[in-house]
Amino acid sequence: NAGVTQTPKFQVLKTGQSMTLQCAQDMNHEYMSWYRQDPGMGLRLIHYSVGAGITDQGEVPNGYNVSRSTTEDFPLRLLSAAPSQTSVYFCASSSRQLTRGYTFGSGTRLTVV
Amino acid sequence: SQQGEEDPQALSIQEGENATMNCSYKTSINNLQWYRQNSGRGLVHLILIRSNEREKHSGRLRVTLDTSKKSSSLLITASRAADTASYFCAVHQTGANNLFFGTGTRLTVIP
Predict the structure, then answer these.
(1) Chain B residue numbers touching A44 (CB-CB < 8 A)
(2) Is the separation of the CB atoms in B81 and B61 below 8 Å?
(3) Is the CB of B48 less than 8 angstroms away from the CB of A92?
(4) B10 and chain A in contact, CB less than 8 A
(5) Burial A27-54, CB ≥16 within 10 A → b, else e
(6) Which terminus of chain A is more solvent-facing, meaning fewer CB atoms within 10 Å of its CB: N or C?
(7) Could you give the 3-state DSSP secondary structure of residue A84?
(8) B29 at the A interface (CB within 8 A)?
(9) What is the DSSP letter of A59?
(10) Are B101 and B4 spatial neighbours (Cβ–Cβ below 8 Å)?
């Protein structure tokens, strides 16, 4: 089925560990974004990309890196996990015009202990 | 922050009643979008209204947009228990390449 696939669905990390959250879409969307969702704070934009080879920072980029080597994939890297990064992470994609809305993945629930 | 802000934060109604949620934003926009999130799931796009539109309908959903007041409302008519979810507005700012989301309204529809 066409859509956005995120892996893993759940992850527990120890403080200081690094990991990569995977995101892949098969809709040939140019735009891809990473959001984090925390209770009472809605979704906050971490990083986004408007096409392969192009990335930019969102509202809360510190502690995260991204790359976009292909149209399909947009991995999010946590460099040195901190308890403040405990959150639910969503990847989303859209066509360039943003006129049909974002398609969201099902999320990754990350706990940093 | 350029987020939209939803009001109320939580809303509880009886099945069959109408539910209205409001969104205010701060800057000029290309469009405003509404999303739904069931507990523990990803967001699902409901409806998009462009900056030159004032009202839009989709099934039991009605969205209005007042760019002079920088506000939008989402009306769900004849609500059902299955409408229980969180609803978010998201703004596509003029000149931006992404969406900024509000904090959401938690709707509970009591059977």
Answers:
(1) 101
(2) no
(3) no
(4) no
(5) eebbbbbbbbbeeeebbbbbbbbbebee
(6) N
(7) helix
(8) no
(9) S
(10) yes
- Cβ of A107 within 8 Å of Cβ of B30? The answer is no
Which residues between 49 and 88 in chain B have a beta carbon less than 8 angstroms from any beta carbon of chain A? 50, 88
Is B45 at the interface with chain A, CB within 8 A? yes
| Interface membership of B92 toward A (CB under 8 Å) | yes
Do A103 and B92 lie within an 8 Å CB cutoff? no
Tokens of A112: 């940093």
pLDDT band at B72 (very low <50, low <70, confident <90, very high): very high
Query: Residue A94 — pLDDT band, cuts 50, 70, 90?
Result: very high
Which chain A residues have a beta carbon less than 8 Å from that of B31?
98-99
Beta strand pairing call for A76-78 and A10-13: unpaired
**How far is CA B85 from each of CA A93, A101, B51, rounded to the nearest angstrom?**
22, 19, 26
What is the pLDDT averaged over residues B93-107? 87
CB-closest option in B35, B41, B102 to A106: B41
